[in-house]
Amino acid sequence: MTTRTKGYIVDEAFNLLAISGLTTVPTAGEVERALNRLEDMMYELQSRNICSSYVFEDFPDANTESGIHPAFTNAASTNVAARIASSYGRPLTGDIALQARQSMSNWSARTARVNPINPPSRQPRGSGNTFRWQNWYRYYRIEDNAPISCSTLEIKVDEINGFIIDFSLYLKENEVISSYTKEVTNGLELLADSNTDTTINLEQVKGVQGGYNTILLTITTDLGRVNPHVVNFNVTQ
Q1: Could you give the 3-state DSSP secondary structure of residue 216?
Q2: How far is CA 101 from CA 68, 75, 178, 189, in A?
Q3: In the chain, which stretches have pLDDT less than 70?
Q4: Which CATH class, in words, describes the domain spanning 144-236?
Q5: How far apart are CA 29 and CA 130, in angstroms?
Q6: For the whole model, what pTM was predicted?
Q7: pLDDT at 114
Q8: Coil, helix or strand for 193?
Q9: DSSP-assigned beta bridge partners for residue 156
C-alpha cells in the first residue's frame, strides 16, 4: 500500500497554518524542523502504544514514504500543525484544533494496544463453563499475555505469516549479520527463515497454540558482536 510522503504531511501542516493566517512560505530550515517534529511525534505515539508502520529515520527525508495508513494522514498533518504553530506565534483556528483532537482520538481508538483486564481468580466462570466439577476450571485463571507494545507481533492459530526483524539500529556502519540462531517456543512453528546483511526474515511463522510465545534470535556480526533479541508474539484463537 502506497502512503503519503513525510514531505506531503508537513506541507499539509503548513497549508493548515496558512488558513490560520501564516502568509510566509516556509524555508528549507523550517521544513526540516517540521519533519523533525513529525518524527518526534511518531516516537511519542509509539511510546503510548499507538501503533503504525511509520518509517523512522535518523535524518528525516521529505521524499520518504511515511508508512502511515491513509486513514490517519489527516491526523498526522493536523497534529503536526498544532505542534509547529507556536513557532510562528499563530494560534490554530478552532476548527483545525478540533480536527487535530478528533483525528488523534480516532487514531488512538483504532490502533492503540491497551492492557487487558483479567477477571479475578475468585470469579466463577458461570453456567456456560462445561468444566464446573474441577476447581481449576470453575474459576477464571490469569492469562499469560504478551507484552503490550507496538513491537509485539500478532498471529492466529493455524495462520502462516511472514515478518522481517530489522537490526539496522544495532549494527554499526558497514557491519553486517554473519550468522544467527533461533529458539522458538511451543506455541509457534518457524517453517522458513533467512537473513540479509541487516535483517532476519521470518518467512513462514505458523501459530500453533494460543497465548504468549516468543522467538529468540541471536545474531553474530562480522565484527564478532553477539546480540540476543526476543521477538514477542501474541497468538490468538
Answers
A1: strand
A2: 18, 8, 47, 42
A3: 19-24, 114-144
A4: mainly beta
A5: 66
A6: 0.67
A7: 67
A8: strand
A9: 236
Mean pLDDT for the chain overall: 86
Cell 512560505 identifies what position? 25
User: CA dist 168 to 13, 120, 173, 176, 177, Å?
Assistant: 30, 42, 9, 9, 10
Check if the beta carbon of residue 202 is closer than 8 Å to that of residue 229.
Answer: no
Q: Find the helix packing angle between 94-111 and 73-84, rounded to 10°.
A: 130
- For residue 107, what are the contacts with CB-CB under 8 A and spacing of at least 6? 45, 50, 72, 75
What's the confidence (pLDDT) of residue 53?
Answer: 86
The cell for 43 is 516516537
Residues 18-62: pLDDT tens digits? 854 555 678 889 899 999 999 999 999 988 889 888 989 889 999
- Domain spans, the chain: 6-111, 115-143, 144-236
CB neighbours of 27 closer than 8 A, spacing ≥ 6? none
Which one of 3.40.50.620, 1.10.3230.20, 3.40.50.980, 3.90.770.10 gives the CATH number of domain 6-111?
1.10.3230.20
Residue 59 pairs with which residues in a beta bridge? none
Is the CB of residue 7 less than 8 Å from the CB of residue 28? no
Show Cβ contacts of residue 229 under 8 Å, excluding neighbours closer than 6 positions.
Answer: 165, 167, 216, 217, 218, 219
